[in-house]
Amino acid sequence: MRNWPDFITIKEVGPRDGLQNEKKFLSTEDKVTWINMLSNTGIKEIEYSSFVNPKWIPALADAKEVGKRIKRNPSVLYSALVPNMKGLENALEAGIDGASVFMSASESHNLKNINKSIDKTYPVLKEVIDTANEEGKKVTGYVSTVFDCPYEGRVSPEQVLRVCDQLLEDGVDEISLGDTIGSAVPSQVQALLDEIVTRLPKEKIIMHFHDTRGMAIANIMTSLQFGITRFDTSIGGLGGCPYAPGAAGNVATNDVLYLLNGLGIYTGIDEQKLQEASIYIQNKLGKKLPSRSVAFIEGTA
Amino acid sequence: MRNWPDFITIKEVGPRDGLQNEKKFLSTEDKVTWINMLSNTGIKEIEYSSFVNPKWIPALADAKEVGKRIKRNPSVLYSALVPNMKGLENALEAGIDGASVFMSASESHNLKNINKSIDKTYPVLKEVIDTANEEGKKVTGYVSTVFDCPYEGRVSPEQVLRVCDQLLEDGVDEISLGDTIGSAVPSQVQALLDEIVTRLPKEKIIMHFHDTRGMAIANIMTSLQFGITRFDTSIGGLGGCPYAPGAAGNVATNDVLYLLNGLGIYTGIDEQKLQEASIYIQNKLGKKLPSRSVAFIEGTA
């Protein structure tokens, strides 16, 4: 119970997973300024946008422009979400170090989200994975609804492992396991990681929690106890859930940093700079972000 | 890591610890209606008010009136905060099943909060404890700042144990250990409970977390792993912190219930009735409460 890793890598997904759920459109210039601030916090990886069809995610319609204009910090890996070959082409033109493909562990969520069955999704992703690999880009496979599906309910670890196995076989470098609706409690995390860490290499596993029900920090604590060293987080807890007003989005980078610093786990992230980037985005969006820690920032919205 | 108790007892402290930090004064009638709703949720214990001098906590100046007017559910234990003999007399007149005395584990917080040194606090409490015991009331000893003190920083488990030992010797039936400023992370909880559970009977220990930094659910999870079966919580996360606008207060009863239900731990609390009481107080206070789960209630402020 007392064992956790010495070093944790945080991927900041606020500019993608956070903004895509925000109603307010942030200007390209503000996005660029903000991502540049994030680039100087010590965060090692930033998912800067999504190359999904802008019809589906208008908030990120300027992905290409953002990718071209951000100032690249050589210590940061810049990745973006890519759904298909068209998205990958745009992402490559805009500049990426990593490409993130995505699908769901549950059939109905995959159908709803990607408009294809799970089996028919693999070949689409495979083409993207192959090309991204040929281009020397890191490829991440996001697997959504790994605990609960909003349409099917509980998702079994076996279902999740099946998708992970296929994606790894198809060439992704790593898997990010998403608690998409933020419903999991630590016993579910235990049940899944029991299977995952005995079957897959730990260093390829990223945990991606949403704080919808306030369980994310406890779930991260549980993951740490399994030796998981990588987490997706969103500054200020940006994101929310369009279906639940007031609900939190991704777990807040700030709250995770508070936990990790308290546990004596190294992240390389400068808390002060992170808070400055939090204030910036909070003021730009004109609303209080869900992170508990952001309440401690002076001059907030 | 997989072991936790089958049954947990929640003490609802919203009407006291929650309201005492709210700026808006809730009318006596609204308090009574709300406490009556709480009495029907299945919660086993409610701290209904504080008999501290109203000069210090004007929000609860009507403690006596509230105590006299609430409809007592025989399955619920009704307790109140009492600082001294005057407070206890009033509380006894108003009707209590339990009296809660309080002090801090850190000298400076105790001085600031009670205006006495720790050593000079014991005799004041002893008189209250003795009288409450003679009257057949359960006596709880709240110990504040058991992890961190806002003036002294880290508080050692030894300091905490010293205060607990003295209070138990002086006749309290149980101890509630308070993370007053909501700063603790699970490693601190582990360090304290390592000492506590080997030296004191577990069933006399209540953990009292604030969710100021979003760590409370992880800290409760950690406490469960030590076999702790009793927690103080506040409906909706009511309370906040007067020094940090937007900060959360006591850990939300709703979020704790979500965790415990998810873990398969029995509490006896009816989630629907709890949500109704949450909506009621949220609408009366006219603001969104910090609980993540309250966002899921329809018809909220």
Automatic annotation (TrEMBL), chains A, B:
<keyword id="KW-0479">Metal-binding</keyword>
<feature type="domain" description="Pyruvate carboxyltransferase">
    <location>
        <begin position="8"/>
        <end position="275"/>
    </location>
</feature>
<keyword id="KW-0456">Lyase</keyword>
<dbReference type="GO" id="GO:0006552">
    <property type="term" value="P:L-leucine catabolic process"/>
</dbReference>
<protein>
    <submittedName>
        <fullName>Hydroxymethylglutaryl-CoA lyase YngG</fullName>
    </submittedName>
</protein>
<dbReference type="Pfam" id="PF00682">
    <property type="entry name" value="HMGL-like"/>
</dbReference>
<dbReference type="GO" id="GO:0046872">
    <property type="term" value="F:metal ion binding"/>
</dbReference>
<dbReference type="InterPro" id="IPR000891">
    <property type="entry name" value="PYR_CT"/>
</dbReference>
<dbReference type="GO" id="GO:0046951">
    <property type="term" value="P:ketone body biosynthetic process"/>
</dbReference>
<dbReference type="GO" id="GO:0004419">
    <property type="term" value="F:hydroxymethylglutaryl-CoA lyase activity"/>
</dbReference>
<comment type="similarity">
    <text>Belongs to the HMG-CoA lyase family.</text>
</comment>
<dbReference type="InterPro" id="IPR013785">
    <property type="entry name" value="Aldolase_TIM"/>
</dbReference>
<dbReference type="InterPro" id="IPR043594">
    <property type="entry name" value="HMGL"/>
</dbReference>
